[in-house]
Design goal:
The strands form seven sheets. Strands 2-1-3-6-7 form a five-stranded parallel β-sheet, with helices on both faces. The chain has a five-stranded antiparallel β-sheet with strand order 9-8-12-11-10, with helices on both faces. A five-stranded mixed β-sheet has the order 14-16-17-19-18. The protein is α/β, with parallel strands linked by helices and 645 residues long. It folds into four domains: 132 residues, Response regulator (Rossmann fold), CATH 3.40.50.2300; 192 residues, PAS domain (Beta-Lactamase, 2-Layer Sandwich); 149 residues, Histidine kinase-like ATPase, C-terminal domain (Heat Shock Protein 90, 2-Layer Sandwich), CATH 3.30.565; 125 residues, Reverse transcriptase/Diguanylate cyclase domain (Alpha-Beta Plaits, 2-Layer Sandwich), CATH 3.30.70. The chain starts with a strand and ends with a helix. Helix 12 runs antiparallel to helix 14. 47% of the residues lie in helices and 22% in strands. A hairpin with a 4-residue loop joins strand 8 and strand 9. The protein is extended and about 105 Å long.
Length: 645
């Protein structure tokens, strides 16, 4: 994006740093009309803001007795929405996370600052800000266009067109003449369809014929003015009938919606640009979390050695500092893990490895982890597990992650003397887990948004409750990936109850989990398609093996799962098709597998609700890396193949 001019305010009391930043900006934005001001104090900042408006702010984290976050708040209280970039001499990732949550575009360390880093960050921030401004202007323009359209209809200032049944003009108003840039006489002497663009004339006549038959119709078309570009228009047309009910004329109100169409197109482009920028932020999250993990692990190991006394004895003060460091390392590790999980979810790479899980034992282990924390807080922590609680089919590590998140939140929000209860009971083929507390509860608004990414309950500005706002959204994703559901019940001042469900470990649960990873349904008209993933194609490529030996278990899996969960069908299909994905398979081997699958499935049917559905095999396998690098790409390719057949 080209910038003709940029006005920047540097808020920093270190003149050397101001000089360096100014030099970098001028070097990186040569050819751009730059205005770079500086403010060395809060008073100077207020003075600058009173007389000037700025496109971007560079703010030092330390400004006398104030922090950069406080400076940001001062600027925001004036209603200024320009992007802000925080600068600091010492890197602190917790401060970085806080700054981003407070609305900073980015957080840069002065020691590693360069022309490219600073100017690229400024450029990205400006691009995002301008795209956001354009989006808001476009939305405003669209809204104004719609309001104008309604006003025109209400005041009948839009075009009025009266036609006979042969589509010749009988009467019109001045607004239509202005719209078409023809005189009244020229329009009266011309067939109506000649005033419509050629590609729309057939559809226009068809719409008018429909009005004669049915009485009224609202449709869009494109007008062809005399000396201007084509005009997108809406026709609100009705037939006029005589006393016998026979149609004799057609009248229509014609409204120019070209500006609305242009605004819609501009909005689409703006949204596309915002999606690109959002992807850049997602990529940054993934990169940053991976880069933080390695040094964090080293620091954690080093502190663990110190805690165990392997590096020698420490006095009480030193031990206290080591414990503080250990707690903060754990907090930072949780933040990094949340960001890493989020990046995996967005990339579709979050792995779930379910197996038979003794949920009761896991709950006891997790409870033990939080007992000391509950004692420190003076909170009553209880565990209730129903007798004969069955095993569930779930990923132990991921369910422990969900439990830890819910319990951590419950303890954080429960005041001293309160109560936290972890319980589980069986409900049919599901086990329902509940985490309840006697904390302040959630407002109705919080309950609708508590599982949203980055959403935090209550007053996050005072920092009394810290975190990323990602934990519950990740927990929701993990539970739903197991086929379960998570919800919250709460009243303000009455505490919260978070519920989530997991499938009881059974043949059905295992089949459904396998089906979730192996089959993707696709509905089009009367056809229902299944995309079947085969991750061990070599087993099916041997010509000396009977087809039934290799494929019976695949078809059985499909039949069992569909018979037990007919909700997979949107409607009763007349036939089904199966597309086969063969990741990592050679082209030649894929053809062999396709032939043998075809041989078997061509003789088979799916029996759903006593309806036998034939399975014609698609003779175009999706296979090997050329068709896609990831499972998601392969599935999309297969669905496209299915849709085209």
């Amino acid at each position: 994006m080209f910038f003709a001019s940029i006005k920047i305010l540097i808020v920093d009391d270190n003149l050397d740093d101001v000089f360096i930043a100014t030099r970098y900006i001028k070097k990186g934005f040569s050819g751009v009309a730059l205005t770079i001001d500086d403010a060395a104090s809060l008073a100077a900042l207020e003075t600058r803001l009173d007389v000037s408006a700025y496109d971007l702010f560079l703010i030092d984290y330390h400004l006398g007795e104030y922090t950069g976050l406080e400076v940001m708040k001062k600027i925001r209280t004036r209603g200024i929405q320009s992007p802000m970039i925080l600068l600091t001499g010492q890197g602190d990732e917790l401060v970085a996370v806080t700054a981003m949550k407070e609305g900073a575009w980015d957080y840069l360390k002065k020691k590693t600052l360069s022309v490219d880093i600073l100017c690229n960050t400024i450029r990205h921030a400006m691009e995002f800000a301008r795209a956001e401004v354009l989006r808001k202007k476009t939305e405003k323009s669209l809204k104004e266009s719609e309001e104008k359209y309604r006003t025109m209809i209400n005041t009948t200032t839009e075009g009025f067109w009266l036609l006979d049944l042969n589509f010749k003009t009988l009467d019109l108003n001045e607004s239509l003449c202005k719209m078409l840039q023809y005189t009244r006489k020229e329009i009266l002497s011309s067939p109506a369809e000649t005033l419509i663009t050629e590609e729309k004339q057939i559809a226009f006549k068809g719409a008018l014929e429909s009005i004669i038959a049915r009485g009224e119709k609202v449709f869009e078309t494109i007008l062809k003015p005399k000396n201007a570009h084509s005009i997108h228009a809406i026709f609100n047309a009705t037939s006029i009938r005589n006393r016998m009910g026979v149609p004799v004329k057609i009248f229509a109100f014609v409204t120019d919606i070209s500006k609305m169409k242009e605004a819609e197109e501009t909005l689409k482009k703006s949204n596309k640009a915002l999606k690109v920028i959002d992807q850049m932020k997602s990529d940054f999250l993934s990169y940053a979390s991976h880069e933080l993990r390695t040094p964090l692990t080293s620091i954690r190991n080093a502190v663990a050695i110190l805690e165990k006394g392997k590096a020698g004895p420490f006095n009480e003060t030193q031990e206290r500092f080591i414990k503080i460091a250990s707690r903060n390392i754990d907090r930072l590790a949780n933040l990094v893990n949340d960001v890493l999980d989020l990046s995996k979810i967005e990339a579709g790479k979050l792995e779930i490895k379910p197996s038979e899980l003794a949920l009761g034992a896991l709950m006891k282990n997790v409870t033990a982890l939080f007992q000391s924390q509950a004692l420190e807080r003076g909170t009553q922590f209880e565990l209730e597990i129903a007798q004969n609680l069955p095993s569930v089919y779930a990923d132990s590590d991921r369910i422990e992650q969900v439990l830890c998140n819910l319990l951590s939140n419950a303890l954080k929000f429960t005041p001293k003397g309160g109560r936290v209860l972890l319980s589980a009971q069986t409900e049919g083929e599901w086990v329902t887990v509940c985490v309840s507390d006697t904390g302040p509860g959630l407002s109705p608004e919080d309950q609708t948004r508590v599982f949203d990414r980055f959403y935090q309950v209550g007053d996050v500005l005072n920092k009394s409750i810290q975190g990323t706002g990602l934990g519950l959204s990740i927990a929701k994703e993990l539970v739903e990936r197991h086929g379960g559901r998570i919800s919250v019940v709460s009243e303000s001042g009455q505490g919260c109850c978070f519920f989530f469900s997991l499938p009881v470990c059974s043949e059905r649960a295992i089949d459904m989990a396998a089906l979730e990873n192996a089959i993707r349904p696709y509905k089009k008209g009367s056809m229902f398609s299944l995309v079947l993933l085969v991750f061990d194609p070599e087993v099916f490529s041997h010509r000396d093996r009977s087809p039934s030996d290799s494929y019976d278990h695949i078809l059985d899996l499909v039949l069992k799962a569909l018979q037990r969960d007919s909700d997979l069908f949107i409607a009763q299909p007349s036939f089904a098709r199966i597309a086969c994905l063969l990741p990592g398979t050679s082209s030649l081997n894929a053809v062999t597998v396709r032939e043998r699958l075809t041989q078997y499935f061509s003789l088979s049917t799916l029996s759903i609700q006593d309806i036998k559905i034939p399975i014609p095999m698609i003779m175009n396998p999706v296979s090997y890396p050329q068709d896609g690098e990831t499972g998601k790409e392969l599935i999309e390719k297969a669905l496209l193949t299915v849709a085209q057949h």
